[in-house]
Every structure is written in C-alpha cells, then in structure tokens.
Amino acid sequence: MSRLLVCASAVVALFFPVSLLSADDWPQWMGPTRDDVWHESGILKEFPKNGPKILWRAPIHGGYSGPAVAKGKVYVTDFMAEGDKSNDPGKKSDLKGKERILCFDENDGKLLWKYEYPCEYKISYPAGPRTTPALNDGKVYSLGAEGNLVCLDAATGTLVWEKDLKKEYNIQAPHWGFSGHPLVEGDKLFALVGGEGSVAVAFDKNTGKEIWRALSASEPGYAPPTLIEAGGTKQLLQWSSEAINSLDPNTGKVYWSVPLKPDYGMSIMAPRKQGNYLFASGIGDQSLLLELDAKEPNAKELWRGTNKMAIYCVNSTPVVDGETMYGVDRMGQLRGVTLATGKRLWETLKPTTGSRPANSGTAFLTKNGDQYFIFSETGDLIIAKLSPEGYEEVSRAHVVDQTNEAFGREVVWSHPAYAGKKAFIRNDKEIVAVSLAE
Predict the structure, then answer these.
(1) Which residues does residue 327 pair with via DSSP β-bridges, in sequence order?
(2) Sequence-ordered list of residues with C-beta below 8 angstroms from that of 343, at least 6 positions apart, any chain
(3) Cα dist. 46→24, 52, 211, 393, 421 in Å?
C-alpha cells in the first residue's frame, strides 16, 4: 500500500471571539467555527455561462495550505524552493528555500507585506506548507511544514514571536511534514507537535511560552487540534497516530482516550461532532463512531467500520449535515453516509477524479445555505446539492490549473477560503479571487 500525501484536516466548534471578526471573514482553516459552513447570503446559485468573474490573480509559489481572510486582508503561505520538488510517497526530499507568509489586499490582490525565513525541507511531497494561517486578535499564526511556528502582527507582518518546534522538542518533522492547523482559543494556541510527552502542546498566544504539554505516541500523526463542548465541558481533541484523546484545554489532563490506528500513522481528518456523536476515520478501513457522555467528559464506542461502511478519509474532512455525513473516501468517492449507523447511501466520482477511482482523490466541501461549494483536485469549483438521496451537480467552472502531481495524475490540493461573497483559491503558481455574488 503506497504512502500518501498528508494535508491535514478540520476542527469543530472553535470558540472565536466574535467581536474580533466580521461575519464575512474566513479567519482560519474551514471557516470561523472550523465546520466548513459559509453563512453569507446573496451568493449565486448557478455560475454564469462563461463562468464566475475572476476579480484578481496574484503570483505565489508552492504550497498545500489554504488562504485565510480577515479585516480586508488575505493571508497565505508558500515555499520558494531551490531544486527538484517531484513527489515520491516513500521518499523524503532534500530541498533548500524560503517559507513565506504573504498578505494581500482582499479587494485588488495587491501584496501588502511578506515575511520569510530560510527553510530546508526533508519531507515527502515538498511543494510547500500544509497549514492555513489562523487570525486572532490582530495577530496571524503560521505553522510551516518543517515546524516553524510564527506569530506576526496581522497588519504589518512584524514578528511577534517564533519557535522552531523541531529544535525545542528534539524531534524530526513527520514524513509528510507538520500538517495540524494551529488552533487559537482564549489566550492559548494549541499545536500538534510530537515527541515524548509533547504530541499536544498549548502555548501562550501572545508570547509563545509553553503552558502545558501532553501525550506520547510512536508518531504524532497529522490531525489538527479540535475543540468541542460535551458533558458540560470544553474538551480539546488530539488524534495521534494511535488514539483519539480528549484533554482539558486548560491543563492538558487526559479525560479519555480511544484507540484508532490508521495505516502509516496517517491520522488526518479532524474528528467531527454532531450532537453527542463523534466520528473519525482514516486509511486502512479505520473508522469509529463514539457517543459522548452528556454529563461528564467521557466517551463510549458505538461502532467501528468495515470496508462496506462509512467513509475512510485522506486529504479532506467530511461535513455533517443533520443525520447525514458527506465526505471523500480514499479512492476519490464522494459518499453520503448515515452518521448513526455508518450506512453508505450513495457515492460518486464526479466531483473528484471524474470517472475512475484514484489514490487520494480529493475534493473540499463547504456548505452555503441549501447548497454546497465543492473545490475539486481538477481545479474546478462546483455548485452542488447534497442530500441523503444523492449528488446533484448544478454548475461547474475551472478556476485554477493543476500544478502538482500525485500518483501519476495532475492535482491541486488546497482548501479555499470564502469571504466577502468571494472564493479565494490557490495553486502552486497563483492565488485567485473569484466573485460569487448574486
């Protein structure tokens, strides 16, 4: 079984200070509450005949990281590499270059500032950073593929603090790089790090000082920290390569832990909470539904999947809509699944690879009202209706080219941002603003 690229996925129910952001902002990966729901109204229901209007394009370099949008600015990271960036799932690269955090004007794409630092990549799939910047309280937080954790002034790009996680925690980068999107809540920044006793770490968001560290595992995995509330308690979830763990976000104390071991240490998606259910899955037919205790921080197992149940996620995190979950399986099948039972209702390759299964076929789903925007690895933006009955494609437009490669096919693997009635989409050459206003 081949090793795959990791592009980590999603966090549920982030408790973001509403006063710091406008309703139109997309300040982090998967949106304001990291549930991939876009709440703006006045959004078109079908693309014009010639496709949606491209408002601006700006040149950038390589990366899998998605953009973030806040207070009229767009933030994205990239890697200016020197050498061969070809992909080999089983082999690490050896590349020198610069990682950068870039800030653009949301309205015209003008580059407002950039922050860069030298960086040597020794990871597989070396196009660039994986994690989306997180905006909070006038600061932007970025985690690079080799573990450079940086806090900048969001308005000017001035350095506030920085940490070299590999050096500080005496670790190496995971095979596919640091991929857990940083999570900011209250006065803390939560990060997936690695090492003995430090798989999960909380930092002071203003100074970078460590507040606590917790958990050990043979590999840290790639799943982002996830904040939920259940049993009357806020819980920080960290899925390592070996188990889903619930922690006290204030102290790092472990509330509960349930084994879930995907192949190759590839815990990627963020566990998805709906009511008292919690779902997670990965390759190797590893899926799990837990029931969260209503009175205290605890969980019990309801079912584990087989190869005829559920969804086995790789590059994207599924969306839960009522009693149904929609997500992309390892071979590219977009599936509708009944969450409570894991029963598969339907599947289609149309919004991912097109006509045939392909390893790590990818699409990113975002709900807007009664429709979904789906960004495909083909560089197409799709408007679709998803229901327990099936997939209905309404409209499709090609917005960026596939500038990367995976398993012999051309792909673009990056989650868009949606803000100000626009989509912001990047590949390894440019970032594009697309008008989605009615």
Answers:
(1) 335
(2) 309, 337
(3) 21, 9, 48, 10, 14
Per-residue pLDDT reduced to its tens digit, 397-420: 999 999 999 999 999 999 999 999
Predicted confidence at residue 84, as pLDDT, reads 82
For residue 342 the two structure tokens come to 């894991």
The 3-state DSSP class for residue 166 equals helix
Q: How far is CA 145 from CA 6, 62, 173, 196, 294, in A?
A: 11, 12, 8, 20, 38
Residues 6+ apart with CB under 8 A from 180: 8, 131, 143, 191, 192, 220, 221, 222, 223, 224, 225
Q: Which residues contact 322 (CB under 8 A, 6 or more apart)?
A: none
| CATH 2.130.10.10 holds for 18-435 | yes
- Give CA–CA dist 29/9, Å, rounded: 8
What gap in Å lies between CA 426 and CA 60, rounded to an integer? 8
Cβ-count burial 342-351 (b if 16+ within 10 Å, e if not): bebebbebbb
Tokens matching residue 281: 């899955």
∠370-372-375 over CA atoms, to 5°? 170
Entry pTM: 0.94
Q: Order of strands across the sheet with 319-321?
A: 319-321, 324-328, 334-338, 344-348
Q: Where are the domains of the chain?
A: 18-435
Q: pLDDT for 296-337, tens place per residue?
A: 999 999 999 887 889 999 999 999 999 999 999 999 999 999
